[in-house]
## 1
Amino acid sequence: MSVNRNNVRERRAAKWAADLMESVRAVLAVRPEADPDNVRHTLILLQQPPLERLRKSLTRGRALAQRK
Amino acid sequence: MAAPSLNESELHFLRALLRRKVRFMVVGLSAAALQGAPVVTQDVDLWFEDLNDPRIRQALREVGAAYVAPSILNPPLFAGGGVELFDIVLTLHGLGTFAEELSNCIEIPVGRQKLKVLGVERILASKRAANRAKDRLVIPVLEDSLSARQVAGSRDRRKSDASRVRKTTRRKSPATKPAS
């Protein structure tokens, strides 16, 4: 049962990753000088609601400021 | 220090401004973050058309905050009520007037209201014009993010067009069958 559930989860994750990388390649085909990490992170963030994107940005910004 | 993300009082303040129809927009890196740019920021920059608009004071009062006028020691600030996270922007390098830039905004829902957020193209224009060391660091990230958004957007549109065509074809297919 749990093995099946794990398989399903892994298959979904692999499909998500494959779709994501296809999108990254499509962007790089149009703009080869783009940094693949910037492109990938943008595409991941676009899958989330806007306020969640802002929350992540602020959380990291504050953490960096505290480390300084 | 303010909370690391938009908390209830910050959202309350934004809603209070929107409910009163105060003319403002989110600008800077927080605006870029709202649109998916992988950037980090410590504050949310708000550009008001008119800082003397009494409705801003009313919204501040509603959340228990106040406006601190600029002096030699400080820029204009919001204080108290948990809204210190918001920075007041008076001018933006390389951009048009507030009214001109309003047409370059996208709208993001906050509750029942829509928040105006300056588009990434215009944020890039202001960063290029300001050209400080910290702006130069973020310009390539914004450029890459903008390309990703544009390509992803056009791919999504193509996919949804294709799915619409498939649905239309399926709906039409019984009618195209020859009558038996």
## 2
Amino acid sequence: MEAHGAILQVQSLRKYFPVRAGLFQTVQAQVKAVDGVSLHVQRGEILGLVGESGCGKSTLARLIQRLIEPDAGEVYFNAENILHLPQRALKPFYRQVQMVFQDPYSSLNPRLNIEDAVAFNARVHGDSRSVARTKAWEVLHKVGLHAEQFGRRYPHELSGGQRQRVNIARALVLQPKLVILDEPVSSLDKSVQAQILNLLQQLKDDLGLTYLFISHDLHVIEYLSDRVLVMYLGQIVEVGRAEDVSSQPLHPYTQALFASAPTMNPDDRLDHPPLTGDPPNPINPPSGCRFRTRCPHAMAVCETATPPLLPMGENSRQVACYLYTPQTEAGSVRSSVP
Amino acid sequence: MADTTVIHLPPDLLEGPAGKPMSYWQLVWWRLRRDKVTLGAASIIVLIVLAAVFAPYLTAYEPFQGSIRKRLLAIGSPGHVLGTDEQGRDMLTRLLYGGRMSLTVGVTPVCVALLVGSTLGILAGFTGKRVNMVIMRTMDIFYAFPSVLLAIAISGALGAGIGNTIVALSIVFTPPITRIAESVTTQVRAWEFMEAARVSGAGSLAIIRHHMIANVLAPIFVYASTLVSVSVILASGLSFLGLGASPPAPEWGLMLNTLRQSIYVNAWVPALPGVMIFITSMSFNLLSDGLRDAMDVRL
């Protein structure tokens, strides 16, 4: 689906990791980590990407950031195909697209104090030591860490929330346009999560950023995102505005996800979990629709081929499920759902 | 980043000091200062080094000057505190001057191996599979030989002499250091801040210099320091076998050899070079242990 004004466009991205075993380390199988993912990110929006552990979200983030080279597909940033650029020409791209990592501890060099850690990014792009330090202080101030108090501290002297602020500061010091956040709050306590999420929202408004926000936590995604992508076993299964997807999830997997999210209301306890078992092995995913082995609505057609991601009603809603395709009997009833 | 070795430290060494933030090296120094055994070992080494450097000022005798009339005097003889050797040379003088050679041949190979081994190991850990394989499998060839045998073989092939001993020992010590360097580099590379450094747009060389070296150097350095004590013993052993220094050089291992026959005449004087080798090697050993404890800070 062509999107105009999209800052990032990904088409049919694919990455398989070879599994080597045996005497000569021959390739025995492929882990189909990301299998044909297409998405676009509009300028100025927060796109949430939600999925279970192991569904390929982090791999997707690293493919977009070109930390890993994809096997197939295209990635366009500002309408420029960044996959065709040689490694050394990637520097300006990295200036525009930055990443915040998940583990607040191992994503900081334990031997650098935080002002040096943040200033490093600026110095890479040609700033002198003093200019870089000034920039580092400014951005640390923006994330709530005052340089006089925190500048010379080392990562082991900061709490998890503070370290994550440093990570955010480091990503923002180059004034990027797009920030990819790979589960930035998953390792933090709930109260700290709220602080960091509010900080992210505020920074986005102040600096005019665009976010690709990856998480496995539905509440977090709901709270922050404008649009939501749901990912399962390397493929996108549902797309839509956050309020639409949360109020009326269409794909059976999305429905199960939202039903499984624990609430604070003790009367809302579930008798049996909506989704049982573990996701199938990405080395050997089920034929056709990958969710069919756990899906309560599985039909015969689901075995045949992977359901395509088709538009569903308005507001850029998309679902990849045979329940909603006009060809199937069930689909012709439901395809009138807005 | 889990470390499975358990180090039993007294509780006050486990925490750092409160107050102003400390960098990693400041923290190491702070911990070292409080470890009595390590400080003791370090002082002994400093003493030996100073004695070796200022040997001419500490004794009146010359190391090569001997009087046959005064052979094999016992320890405590008038004028010769530690006795004389089989050619009548003053033992104290020979030991002090011998310190120069033994320390040099002990420390230099480790320094050379540290430089060469770290470079090769970091290169192997950082670059692709093929380069890694070439470097590591080449090192494995050397690693297959027991170190003493390898040192003797190389020394024998190159011929006698201190220079050749240093070369031989450098070759012996490079593979273990390469292996450690490669292993640590591979581990550090997997940490997320290395990915973050790549995302900043920095080139590989800048990343290695600013982010990797500091994190990788500490374990390599600790391992290399344990090799110094081995090196002192190996160097003395090679000289003992006649493959290192040649007479009349005052080298401790060589002195052990030439004094061998004299055990029947005077039992204690021939043991003195061995005592010096022991003290030196042991001090380096304790120092390296203390260094390892101080550097393995749980940050």
